[in-house]
Amino acid sequence: MLARGSRKKFVPSAPSRLHAARTCYDHVAGALGVSLHDRFVALGWLSAGNDCSYDLTLKGTTALEAIGLDIQQARALRRRFAFACLDWSERRSHIGGALGAGFLQLVLSRRWVTQDLDGRALHVTSLGRRELPRRFGVHLLKEGTHLGGVTLG
Q: What is the rounded CA–CA span in Å between residue 75 and residue 119?
């Protein structure tokens, strides 16, 4: 017999610093990663494949190359280029693969985010608080507020 009733709404139990922004292997995860994924899809930068994989559209390639992401280098790596990686704290996708790894390295090198030396937590810097909304439309709250400053778009 199947149980009836609605499923309870998912409520993340991750510590807020990890829930807000962290790494998942070598790419951006948490609320920030999911929000970036959603914006890239909404902006028409990603096209979905059959197996949860993504490719960049011409518009996405142009936009990401314009901010310094080396798309040719990411494609040349011996790994999946881009895919929907299920985020354990959000139960929604962020961008995995070579594209996700390249994007993390870009935002770290531009100092839009910093990473804990002894952990996976990422922190959006004051420069990132200006650049992420301006370039990607990701909405950030004031530092120290709900989810460490990230809202879902």
A: 28
If one counts every other C-beta atom within 10 angstroms of the C-beta of residue 58, the result is 10
- Domain with 66, as residue range(s), is 17-149
What pLDDT does residue 16 have? 59
Task: Judge contact between 84 and 52, C-beta under 8 A.
Answer: yes
> Is residue 70 assigned to a domain?
yes
**Contact status, residue 135 vs residue 147, Cβ threshold 8 Å:** no
pLDDT tens-digit map of 53-67: 999 999 999 999 999
Cα 28 to Cα 105: distance, rounded to the nearest angstrom: 10
CA distances from 74 to 11, 24, 64, 117 (A): 34, 17, 12, 25
Please state, in angstroms and rounded to a whole number, the distance separating the CA atoms of residues 126 and 79: 33
- β-partners of residue 47 are 55
Polymer length of the chain? 153
At residue 89, the 3 state secondary structure works out as coil
Torsion (CA) 8, 11, 13, 17 in degrees, nearest 10: 170
Number of folded domains that form the chain: 1
